[in-house]
């Protein structure tokens, strides 16, 4: 069942185009990953989905409702975990959950039951009556996550919910997200952490400078059954470097020597790869260049991400 | 319903913030106490200053001249200091330590003895034609109060006539003087001598000087500090925005108006409690009077709190950072307090500034409090008019705040 559908979303701030024609969808029970470098437009997209920012053009519908129209039914089915903490430091964990629960109209024994459940799920049961400003970063993140779930939303927007937390809290939060999806909740998940997205998301969109660079299931985007070959050598002269460039996919000169990459794509046969590797090794032997190591590197989302978005630093 | 949840949450947060409670309640009390003390000194000095300081050098030392001095000394508005040294007295006059110097020459009693009854009855024609000069009395005024010399001259002459008239009549026609004396004694009857004299320790409307100070200070500083709520409201909204919780609330099933009301009500309540506590403290600690219509203080308090919180809402939606709150809100609150007469009585301000002050809600609150607390016969329609003006300010600020609040992201 389709929960969210975004079509040709566009948003500018002055002359800067933050989101430039993004289109995607999220089904019930699906975790949809949105990855991109800083300034890619992820948070702006999330805010438009939540109804906190109005798109310049394009449409968003969540279960048939537009977030910009402040529909009560939509507000009740939407849970948002913002990138920054959004909880009250001078209230206790239980008071935070109680307040946001009541804001969503949950009351009485049902509210008490949900507060207990969320405190348990987020591992904050023994800290229920502790002021949030006394919490560690990880505890705050978990509560921040829990607050978004107190009204049992059907669609959850997660904007980098694990930023700055320890591995234990991260695993806990990721487990919670998996459970949400298993219960049929649609999740859109923005993150920098490729391994998280790769481990959790059913489909992924890579965005940069507001544009969609790739979108699909992980299998569609990444050939995880194959690996590239990385050959490291001692320092070598320019002539052998030139010769190697014609044999391998890339040759990089580092401080220690050379890194020669022989890529293994889905379309290339194993024989072709081993032939090219043999040619590279032969050329190195002939030139008397010392071989330091040969490594294999599996294809993954991070590799694809870097390939698509480049290695240049972002603001 | 949802607005109530926000109100409840904010009240809880406010009560847990001891700094806010300190600034809103303890700090004004401290201010009032310190300023009450220093201003009390100022007022009592002022009372002294209201008296014209008159130096007297009496070279005559006769019974007549002593009688004249003691009669003049009965005037409450004069503070008389006797001197024996003319030079010293003249120096003090030049320094402004005394405003007027009366020099009674050694021939005073001789000049008095020389007078006929006709001179006293018709002073403009006879031996008193040159008035004090004929009596060997000289009056000098200091540089700071030149006009006082003329007044003092007339006064001393009048008292001189009063004190010497009976002696001159007695000397001229003893039988007639005796007859007049008996007649006036009969007319005076058994009336106690001091019946008509006002109590010396009382000043305005039966209140002591220190009470008068607090009658002004408590409402003035209460009004000023009530408007400090502007700063706290702005900080609350910025805090909500910085904490990210405003974003959560904006996507929650609560209307903007509900959110705005929910955020405003705690501060209305807080400023009301603040005002009541300060007035209560004024009564208990400083013996201030709540006037003849204490119940009328309540609408003034409510309307002032509404105006303050509505201004707070407007400022809260206009500033974006804590440092802007510190700069703009504090400047605004202090400027409005200064313009309106919170820092000094409105009556001390020039007329132009009094009129300018009416552009602030503070001034209307102060006028209302002045009628209720300091007037013997408070003009209640004026108090209601002030409440109306405060409500108009509240409505205006609220409308502008609402327009800005709707655009919050």
How would you characterize this protein structure?
The complex is a heterodimer of chains A (315) and B (409). Chain A has helices at 42-50, 72-77, 93-103, 108-121, 137-147, 167-182, 194-200, 218-221, 238-247, 270-287, 301-309, and strands at residues 2-13, 16-27, 31-35, 57-62, 78-81, 155-159, 186-191, 203-208, 211-217, 227-233, 250-253, 258-262, 291-298. Chain A has a 6-stranded mixed sheet with strand order 5-6-7-3-8-9, sandwiched between helices. Chain A has a 4-stranded antiparallel sheet with strand order 11-12-10-13, covered by helices on one side. Chain A folds into 2 domains: 2-221, P-loop containing nucleotide triphosphate hydrolases (Rossmann fold), CATH 3.40.50; 227-298, Alpha-Beta Plaits. Chain A is elongated and about 80 Å long. Helix content of chain A is 37%, strand content 28%. Chain A starts with a strand and ends in a 6-residue tail after the last helix. By secondary structure, chain A is of the alpha/beta class. Chain B has helices at residues 2-16, 18-50, 63-73, 86-95, 108-113, 117-121, 146-172, 174-188, 209-226, 229-242, 245-251, 256-286, 297-318, 322-340, 351-357, 361-374, 380-406, and strands at residues 52-58, 78-83, 100-104, 137-141. Chain B has 2 domains: 3-44 and 208-405, no CATH class; 52-176, D-Maltodextrin-Binding Protein, domain 2. Chain B has a 4-stranded mixed sheet with strand order 2-1-3-4, sandwiched between helices. The model of chain B is unreliable at 193-205 (pLDDT under 50). The radius of gyration of chain B is 32 Å and the shape is elongated. Chain B is mainly alpha-helical. Helices cover 69% and strands 6% of the residues of chain B. In chain B, helix 10 (229-242) runs antiparallel to helix 12 (256-286) and helix 16 packs antiparallel against helix 17. The two termini of chain B are 23 Å apart.
């Amino acid at each position: 069942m389709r929960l969210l559908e975004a079509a040709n979303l566009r948003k500018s701030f002055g002359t800067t185009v933050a989101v430039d024609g993004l289109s995607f969808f999220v089904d019930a029970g699906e975790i949809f990953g949105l990855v991109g470098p800083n300034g890619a437009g992820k948070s702006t997209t999330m805010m438009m989905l939540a109804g906190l920012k109005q798109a310049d053009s394009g449409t968003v519908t969540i279960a048939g409702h537009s977030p910009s129209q402040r529909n009560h039914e939509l507000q009740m089915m939407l849970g948002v975990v913002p990138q920054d903490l959004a909880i009250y430091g001078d209230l206790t964990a239980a008071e935070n959950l109680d307040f946001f629960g009541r804001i969503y109209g949950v009351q009485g024994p049902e509210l008490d039951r949900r507060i207990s459940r969320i405190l348990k799920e987020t591992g904050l049961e023994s800290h229920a009556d502790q002021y949030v400003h006394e919490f560690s970063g990880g505890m705050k993140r978990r509560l921040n996550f829990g607050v978004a779930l107190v009204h049992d939303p059907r669609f959850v927007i997660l904007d980098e919910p694990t930023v700055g937390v320890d591995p234990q809290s991260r695993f806990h939060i990721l487990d919670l997200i998996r459970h949400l999806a298993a219960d049929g909740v649609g999740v859109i998940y923005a993150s920098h952490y490729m391994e998280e997205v790769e481990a959790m998301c059913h489909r992924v969109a890579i965005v940069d400078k507001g544009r969609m660079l790739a979108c699909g299931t992980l299998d569609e985007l990444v050939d995880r059954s194959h690996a590239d070959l990385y050959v490291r050598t001692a320092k070598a002269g320019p002539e052998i470097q030139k010769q190697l460039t014609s044999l391998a996919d890339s040759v990089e000169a580092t401080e220690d020597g050379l890194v020669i990459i022989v890529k293994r794509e889905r379309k290339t046969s194993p024989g072709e790869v081993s032939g090219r590797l043999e040619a590279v090794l032969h050329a190195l032997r002939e030139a008397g260049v010392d071989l330091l190591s040969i490594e294999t590197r599996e294809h993954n989302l991070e590799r694809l991400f870097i390939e698509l978005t480049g290695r240049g630093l972002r603001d | 319903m949802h607005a109530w949840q926000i109100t409840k949450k904010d009240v809880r947060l406010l009560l847990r913030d001891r700094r806010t409670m300190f600034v809103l309640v303890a700090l004004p009390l401290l201010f009032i106490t310190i300023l009450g003390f220093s201003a009390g000194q100022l007022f009592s000095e002022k009372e002294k200053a209201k008296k014209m300081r008159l130096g007297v050098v009496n070279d005559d030392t006769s019974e007549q001249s002593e009688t004249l001095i003691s009669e003049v000394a009965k005037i409450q508005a004069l503070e008389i200091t006797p001197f024996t040294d003319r030079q010293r007295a003249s120096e003090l006059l030049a320094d402004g330590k005394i405003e007027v110097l009366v020099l009674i020459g050694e021939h005073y009693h001789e000049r008095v003895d020389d007078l006929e009854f006709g001179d006293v009855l018709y002073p403009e024609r006879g031996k008193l034609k040159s008035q004090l000069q004929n009596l060997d009395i000289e009056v000098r005024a200091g540089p700071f109060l030149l006009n006082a010399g003329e007044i003092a001259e007339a006064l001393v002459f009048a008292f001189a006539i009063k004190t010497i008239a009976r002696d001159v009549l007695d000397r001229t026609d003893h039988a007639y003087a005796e007859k007049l004396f008996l007649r006036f004694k009969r007319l005076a009857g058994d009336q106690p001598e001091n019946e008509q004299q006002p109590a010396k320790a009382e000043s305005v409307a039966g209140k002591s000087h220190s009470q008068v100070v607090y009658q002004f200070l408590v409402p003035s500083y209460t009004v000023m500090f009530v408007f400090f709520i502007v700063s706290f409201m702005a900080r609350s909204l910025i805090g909500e925005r910085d904490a990210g919780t405003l974003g959560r609330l904006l996507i929650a099933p609560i209307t903007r108006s509900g959110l705005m009301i929910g955020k405003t009500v705690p501060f209305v309540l807080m400023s009301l409690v603040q005002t009541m506590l300060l007035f209560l403290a004024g009564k208990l600690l400083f013996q201030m009077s709540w006037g003849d219509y204490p119940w009328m203080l309540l609408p003034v308090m409510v309307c002032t709190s509404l105006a303050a919180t509505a201004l707070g809402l407007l400022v809260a939606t206009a500033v974006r950072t804590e440092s802007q709150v510190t700069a703009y809100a504090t400047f605004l609150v202090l400027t409005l307090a200064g313009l309106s007469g919170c820092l000094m009585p409105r009556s001390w301000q020039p007329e132009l500034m009094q009129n300018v002050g009416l552009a602030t809600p503070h001034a209307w609150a102060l006028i209302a409090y002045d009628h209720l607390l300091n007037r013997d016969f408070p003009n209640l329609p004026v108090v209601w008019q002030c409440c109306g003006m405060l409500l108009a300010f509240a409505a205006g600020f609220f409308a502008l705040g609402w327009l800005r609040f709707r655009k919050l992201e």
